[in-house]
TrEMBL record:
One of its GO terms (molecular function) is transaminase activity. This is Aminotransferase class V-fold PLP-dependent enzyme. Transmembrane segments: none annotated. InterPro entries: Aminotrans_V_dom, PyrdxlP-dep_Trfase, PyrdxlP-dep_Trfase_major, PyrdxlP-dep_Trfase_small. It comes from Halocynthiibacter styelae.
Amino acid sequence: MIKDNPDLIQAIRNRFAHVDSCPFQGERIFFENAGGALTLKKVVETSAFYAAIPDNPGRINPAGQGTQDVINKAKADLAVFMNAGAGQFFAGESGTELLFRLIRTACVNAPKGAKVIGSSIEHPATRSAAQRWAGIAGLDYVNVAHNDATGLVTAEDYAALMTPDVAVATILHASPVTGMGIDVAAISKAIRAVAPDCLIIVDGIQHAAHGQLDLNAYNVDGYVISPYKVFSRHGYGIAWISDKLSAMPHDMLIDAPATGWEFGTRDSGSFATVSDVVEYFDWLGGEVSEETDPRKRIEAAGRAIHAYETHLTVAMINGTGNLPGLKDMEHVQILAGEDNPAREGLVSIVVKGMDSPDVVEALNQEGIRTHTRKADHYSGNVLNPLGLPDCVRISMCHYNSESEVAKLLAVVNEMA
């Protein structure tokens, strides 16, 4: 796979912009992937090309038809990448904006007196939207408490609070604070066992870069990603919605097509970069397997990414070479446990006796980019129950290397 193939690791790194240096800082290690992944060089080229085209997609001229073809191809590529057999894809302002729109539509179309269910581990993109629109629509909000020690919420946790009158449900696929992946398919099954017609909407923003997506297996009605966290660029989000959600009354122009969800003219360049991302996963799958079918290559890439990122997090926690791991440093506390198989390329820590912003700055001075998560409206739901005002988030992706992990361990070890 990836970890035993240094030539492949270098080939992967060569495809990304600023993989080992920052235009503002100079040489640095990038462990802030949960805040936004590195960008494919091909995405940068594609963005520049389409930024210069003045024509609106769909107009009856060569450029209008050509850019519309680009959008259509991207949506077809997304269907392969995310394994969607039905439904539709569309773009919006951001992942957060799209989650609000999907949840708003689901809530205002729910029967009066119904319930909305979600979990305390969720990012505020879903929790805020669900609680706001449940209140406006006259629905009761049901909170499923996550496990503070593991950073997880399970299908059993949802099932314990499910009732037949739950009309809307939200699920987080992976936490940007703990890094833990959630079993979406199992939770969806538990929900539908009690409320089969419930509209289920998933925040896949943190998960998407770390392994394969499989909408056909999830049996949900909405799934949202932010492409800047999946090797593309800022400025847009992508949503998938089921045929059922597509047909519901929603914000739209008068007399517009009933299942249209996009507002205004879309940026064909953003869609074109989606195809670049899917092409990258296809390429990687061909490097780590003998598969020839595009979907199977993407699945192989996802398995390889997950395996390699697990290797990196294990090295960070348990140590590498002659360096102790984070778990062996008495001055370090690891959030969500040392041995947690749900972890997806992310380790959050507290360094005893130091404020997390000071730790992040000390790492930054050594050329290691990490991030502080504070007990605020973004992360307080995870940190407050642990009695922590903040933590240091170290987030990796499959273009990171074990030597970069070793550099971080050496610096943190000296903070004792």
